[in-house]
Prior knowledge:
This protein has 6 helices and 4 strands; from the N terminus they run ααααβαβββα. By secondary structure, it is mostly helical. The protein has a single domain (about 25-175), classed as Up-down Bundle (Bromodomain-like). The strands form 2 sheets. It has a two-stranded antiparallel sheet with strand order 1-2. A two-stranded antiparallel ribbon has the order 3-4.
Amino acid sequence: MQPIRCGEPAPVRSPVESKAALGARARAARGLVLAVPAALLAGAYISEYGFGLYPCEMCWWQRYPHFAALGFAALAFLTVPARLWIALAAVCLLISAGLGAFHAGVEYGWWPGLTSCARVVPSEPGGSALEAIMNTPLVSCDQPQWTLAGISLAGFNFLFSAAAGLAALVLLGKDRA
């Protein structure tokens, strides 16, 4: 690196230089914050459209931070400061994990939920809005639609999102050392 002389503008770093500056752990964190929300959203949409498991309102709340995490992860690949975008994506995963933990607690009856039920109405061009509303199932936030070993989809979202968010932050921290 060359010294900057008085009166000269500071050199501008290109994203390519920034990417090379990321260590192996930061690159792993960047891949993690991209892959995990993409996989969880893919699973949510496959279960919704492939298996008819309609999301309740709190299920939707858990998806929004994943969309934000994907955006921040994409920025980490495209622009500087990559570490900031990776950290923000990890925080989004932790927010979704918190929402998942709250939703799972509602499903297990540990505390009351904020909503009682929700309808997700598909929008079809040319169709009757009233018919779409009447044919859409009413989904309760306190009844899990699917479980595996007693863990609901909200519980799995908590587990995977928390693990990935914490792992990404730890990897970022260890990359600096």
